[in-house]
Design brief:
The complex is a heterodimer of chains A (187) and B (294). Chain A is mainly beta and 187 residues long. Chain A is 2% helix and 55% strand. Chain A has one helix spanning 95-98; strands spanning 2-3, 12-15, 18-28, 36-43, 49-55, 59-62, 65-76, 79-84, 90-94, 110-116, 119-124, 128-136, 149-154, 159-163, 171-175, 180-185. In chain A, strands 1-6-2-3-4-5 form a 6-stranded antiparallel sheet, with no helix packed on it. In chain A, strands 9-8-7-10-11 form a 5-stranded antiparallel sheet. The relative contact order of chain A is 0.12. Chain B has 294 residues and is of the alpha+beta class. In chain B, helix 1 (2-12) crosses helix 3, helix 2 runs parallel beside helix 7 (251-257) and helix 4 packs across helix 5 (159-170). Classes of the chains: A mainly beta (187), B alpha+beta (294).
Chain lengths: 187, 294
Amino acid sequence: MYETSDIKKGLKITMDGAPFVVVEFQFVKPGKGQAFTRTKLKNMITGAVLDKTFKSGEKLEKADLESREMQFLYKDGAMFVFMDTQSYEQIQLSEEDIGDNKYYLLDGMSVDVLMYGERPIDVTPPTFVELSILETEPGFKGDTSGNTTKPAIVETGLKVNVPLFVTMEDVLKIDTRTGEYVERVKK
Amino acid sequence: MVLRAIRQFFDERGFVEVDTPLLVTSPGIEEHIEAFSVDGPGTRRYLLTSPEFQMKRLLASGLGKIYQLGHCFRADETGIHHEPEFTMLEWYRAEAPFETVMRDTEELVVDLAAKTKRWRNAVHTNLRGCDVELPWVRETVSEVFAKHAQVSVTDLEDDELFFRTYVDTVEPRLGENKATFVTHWPARMASLAKLDPDDNQVAQRFEGYIAGIELCNGFTELTDPVEQRRRFTATNEKRKARGAATYPIDEKFLTDLSNLPAAAGNALGVDRLLMLLMGERNIQSVMPFSNADL
């Protein structure tokens, strides 16, 4: 159990059977009145954000969350299939659960899957992934400054802006936190 | 500089600056204010939550207009508008009703806003878009609940519901565009204020707001020691019932209360006012050391 004084950004709690993460909070107390902590909570499954005000001293239930290392096996229709590397148990996550992280998943890749009890709710890919290019304008040999960019589409469908010198043969290192191009990878 | 300007404001109006102890036998008995206790060998004292008991004893001894700038201490209060140790400005006027003290408050803030602007070379003084020019809006508690939460205060007899509605819906809207006094608080929320002679359900108490931030709390003083003792005892009982510490009754204060002339006073959070004048988002930004810096 948490106390209201434990509330900070990123704290994960369970409310009405769902996991929530604190995205904003403020201690409020009229001089002569009762103290409360006003929060914005994000539902970790639906992404919906709600306002909730806790009375000081109120108890908050810890969210039963666990991060497990898994291997991404394959995509089956709208479902992404993963395998727990310890127990070999297979689990599925929908495209909706995965969100933009679908752009960073390659077959066989190791990822962290966030479990809420027995239910998988989110995937964290490695911070950097290497992806080949599916489509881009031809490269300009002379321009190595990287100041001007052009669009490119990589094998997972992600659109990124890349420097003009990047060619179809290059493999790109992408930062999965921002979805941005980092550098070319020598193959 | 703001502290000096505050002193100048009160000195020019004939107030006497006083300096009462921080270490006291009773820290103030309020239902929702927690004090720090200080234990010496064989004695227990408290850090004051407000200097009001000692300041009122000075009024009872014959001083007519007094002010004090000093630190107050309140446990379990930390947030962007709260610090466990903060600077309080408190002033009292004998033979004056709370309306006079509200007038002092408006004039003080206007004066400080003008001076701050001058010091900052006419750089825009940021009060979050709230106009503090005279006169401030005066609205009663029941008016602001009706206006912002569409509820009648008489339906909010439960204190938790009252304050929940207040902090969620009402308070953020107070003084949004124009500085506002919220007056006539329910009698049960007035531990040292005089009840309104025309309506004993409410007290002659006010709070001042700028941009949704509570700046001060003032009232016409209760001068009846019997009634005061009854309220202290009732408050301690409520505190005990919810498992909170109870605080000693200051007997010397009660004795002197019978000599207190009709009077009114106000307690204003200096750090909050400074934060607003400087355009800062939290009070820690205007303190040389916040509690977290220690």
